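Dear U.,

For the methods section draft, I wanted the exact inputs and outputs in one place so we can describe them consistently. I've listed the two proteins in the order they'll appear in the manuscript figures. Please don't edit the token lines directly; just add comments below if something needs changing.

First protein:
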Amino acid sequence: MSERYQEFQSLLKSNAEAVEALLAALLSSTVQADEIARPERLLAAMRHGVLNGGKRLRPFLVIESAALFPNVERETALRIGAALECIHCYSLVHDDLPAMDDDDLRRGQPTVHIAFDEAAAILAGDSLLTLAFDIVAAPETRLPDATKTALVLALARAAGIGGMAGGQALDLAAEKQAPDEDGIVTLQAMKTGALLRFACEAGAIIAGASNDERATLRRYGETVGLAFQIADDLLDLTADAQTMGKATGKDADRGKATLVSRRGQAWAESRLQELVKEAEALLAPFSHRAGILIETAHFIANRRN
């Protein structure tokens, strides 16, 4: 095990713990300024959908992309990462609903609509989506207003009709009419890739970095986003539910087309290694500072759950 990989694993764990602690504080029963009340059952459903472990990969990418730049406070990056995780978790809560992907298991525990009910799950997702923008805009997030505006815009574009939500709509449509390969790439870039792209680009936005640096991290995010989806589709084909903490084999059961189902396992494994090399090349301008992000690309391509 390389020293850099050990450092990566240590950082992934410590950042996940920090994100979990911040999310727990943000989802406390304490009523905030201008709030009227925090309904107990709704808050419990939100906490169930968020405080359930996980690698916290998206916040990790925010924190470590921001760490490329010397002028960023870690606490600020952590808050933006927590905001992104709220959106990611809202998407999981809604995706698991019977009207969407209809899953009973998430991260090894009952999904929110199973543990509570469908109405609670819908409202928990709505509240998490709203909370994300609350976190970005709040005075505790120590950034200039113009930077907060840029983050809100980028996050909204990544999460909305032209990003994750639109990708989920295309994914549902794909169950009735299989898209071609270009359609699959577009669907996955929206549903999965858009938030990962934001996670990497956010570091440059927070730092007020140059347009070239922002574009580089955006492209890195697109590259690891594609790797994440190919690895996910590969795991859906080869892993078991206990390892994954969620149902597997569902794409095949529904006849859903993926790049892996079209091209095969050998192609997927080869393509993942190509994407790692592309990620490394993109990060070359950051030299040794990008070591952790390079290790992250390897981790995403070779993950087992």
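Second protein (the one for the lower panel):
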Amino acid sequence: MKILVTGYSGQLGYDVVLEGKKRGFDMIGVGHKELDITQEEQVESYVHNVKPDAIIHCAAYTAVDKAEDEKEACFAVNVNGTQYLAAAAKSVDAKFIYISTDYVFEGTGTAPFTEEDLANPVGYYGITKYEGEKVVQSLLNKYFIVRISWVFGINGTNFIKTMLRLAETRDELNVVGDQYGSPTYTFDLAKLLLDMAETEKYGVYHASNEGYITWADFAKEIFEVAGKNVKVNSITTEEYPTKAVRPKNSRMSKDKLEKNGFIRLPVWQDALKRYIAELQEEVN
């Protein structure tokens, strides 16, 4: 199976390519330098030359706060880029896996959002990711839309790496404690995405590691696992203002995965332990 992966220089794309190679697939990972997805002709030409069986579209503009100011750049990547890739996928009859986000929901209430719940993004990043979803659904039949949240992987920056870096110079931190969600380890998610690519069980899915947590409690667990003595003070969203609105409820139901025969990702505590062990191995 030949699979084209966008966003190879990011956390998820990197792990998807690694996992695919382990399975013996012909993996082609591209970053911005190899393929500018905002250029329609370039995308069309590249995909026609490669002729992949599937495209896993991990590339995205993900700077949530910057997106409020850089709307044009955000739209170009998340909407136009997705449209060009989806159209190219259709022209070579490739399956298409689009990575979306919990930010397509308004993030209110306490119940986990299902795939059937109405999307209502409040920030510009979420708006563009939802527009990307709609583009995929309007152009293709052979698609998977996979919504994820709180991503961490070995390649690139993330909340865990930030917390561990701050622990080097701080013994006390204020972290938001009223936003709930599920961390997603790219090592685990990559396996699921490739499992999906081998099927025709198309549709919209939610995928993250099992269990829900607040950012503050997640930080406490990170320091516990890493053996760092840092005090975490839980603060409110209002006490940590950001340009873009963060959802207080990013809980997502993953029941559909199981119903369609896919294996749910392990609990987030297990993923965190494996990830920190991997980070520590890298240092040593």
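Candidate sentences for the figure legend, describing the second protein: The chain is about 40% helix and 15% strand. The first strand starts at residue 2 and ends at 6.

Thanks,
Y.
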